[in-house]
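Blinded run. Sample ID left blank on purpose so nobody reads anything into the name before looking at the predicted structure. Input follows.
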Amino acid sequence: MSVPVSETTTPGHPPVAAGRTRGDTGAFLREFFRSPTRVGAVAPSSRRLAAAITAPIPERGEPVVVELGPGTGAFTKVIQDRLGGRGRHLAIELSPALAGLLASRHPGVEVLTGNAADCRSLVAERGVRAVDVVVSGLPWASFPQELQRGALGAVCEVLEPDGAFTTFAYVLAAQTPPARRFRQLLRDRFEEVVMGRTVLGNLPPAFVYHARRPRR
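Blinded prediction complete.
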C-alpha cells in the first residue's frame, strides 16, 4: 500500500458538517431507521471529509463525476463547487425521498434513482460511456460480500482506464470482517489504493480510500 496522503482542509473553516442542518439530520435519521444497512450513518458527513473525498476531481477540463449514495448532499455541494460548472455530475441514490431532496437542492446535478450495482446501465441511459471519478458515500462495510463485489465491479467497469474511485470508512469499524474484506477487494480491483489520514472532525471519525486505475 502507498504512503497515506494528508487530508484536505479549507483554511479558516472548523470541522463542522457540510449542510448539516436540523432538517438534513432529520431526513438522514428517518432513512437510517428505515434501512440502516443501506444508509450506514446517523448524520451527514463533515466538511473536512467532503474535501478529502472529492480531492481527485480534476481542476481543469470537462470531467464526468458519478456520486454514489449522496444522501442529503454533504459531498454533492463540494463536488459542484470543485466542478464550477464544468463537465457532468451524476448522482445515484437508492432512496426516492433523498433523491427528491437532492434534486430540489442541486438542479445542476443529474439525480438518478437506483442501485449502485446498476451504475453502468444508469449512466449509459444518460449517454455516458466512461467516468473520470466515482465518489462514494455508500456504507461498504455494511454490505454482504456479494453486494460488495457486484457494486465495486460495476464501478470498475464504468471508470476510465486512469479513473479514480474514492470512498470513506469509519475508524471504529475498520477492523470488522466486512471492512477488511472490502479493503482487500479494493486492492484486488485497483492498481493503486491509498488510505488517507483520519478526519477527527467527522462524526464518527473516518478516513478516505483513494483508488486509481481499475483492473478489468
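Unblinding after everyone has recorded impressions. The beta strands are 64-68, 88-93, 110-113, 131-136, 159-170, 190-195, 206-214.
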